[in-house]
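Notes from hallway chat w/ T.B., transcribed later so I don't forget. T.B. wanted the structure written out for a chain they're using in a teaching module, and asked if we could keep both sequence and structure tokens in one place. Agreed to drop them here.
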Amino acid sequence: MWNKDYLDKIIERTNKRISSLSEKLLEVKPARQMPEEDQVTIGSGRQMEVAVLFLDICNYSTWFNDSYDSQKIVLSIMNIFMAEMINIVRDYKGEFEKNTGDGLMAYFGTETNNSSECVKLAIDAALTMHYFNDSLFAPYMYQQGAQAKVEFRVGIDYGKITIGRVGAPGGFNSFVAIGTTANIANKLLKVAGSGEIVIGQHVKDLLPSYRQKYCKLILMGSGFEYIRSQTPYWAYRYTSRWKHPQLT
């Protein structure tokens, strides 16, 4: 998938969103009420083995946004950035679960039983996200007046989870992913530095050998241990990055 045509597709998609967003930002004005949220019906759960990806924007709470003009810039960042992150998730056959304010959660592997393919899709999505941000989006937003470079971190783990809906009739309800795998993927963000991709042991073990050379062990581990053996569940920094519109 990673080629010049795909890169051009991302650029075209982003430019269209930038164009349409410019008009919508003129309508952003002070208000007293929160926007209404779409109601989501409650459904049954489904168990599967997937790669779970968490993304978190770094230092979001420190961004300068105490004026209407600066808040419009932040709104531009969130609209363009999050929209393209979700698009990239879908490009790699992933399922977007939820937005966490300054981040998102997604899972990969709902369309395949191949474990190695699951983790490869998640890794490739993360690499594409970083390429998009570093090569196109962050430089563009800096030119538009953003006070800080947009940087983010990613945590990925693989294993068994149950995906279902929770909530109450007539109230807010949403999808949730239940299981240790989701907990670990989220916790890996805590050991990831700005701009890093951190993966769990299961993800590393499922990668082909030529990709494992990019995995650097984090000695502090993931924060989890195997119950029976009392050994750490290891975490790794994935150091490779896309540098050209071709597979590396």
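Follow-up for T.B.: The domain at 42-238 is CATH 3.30.70.1230 (Alpha-Beta Plaits). Might be a good example for the class.
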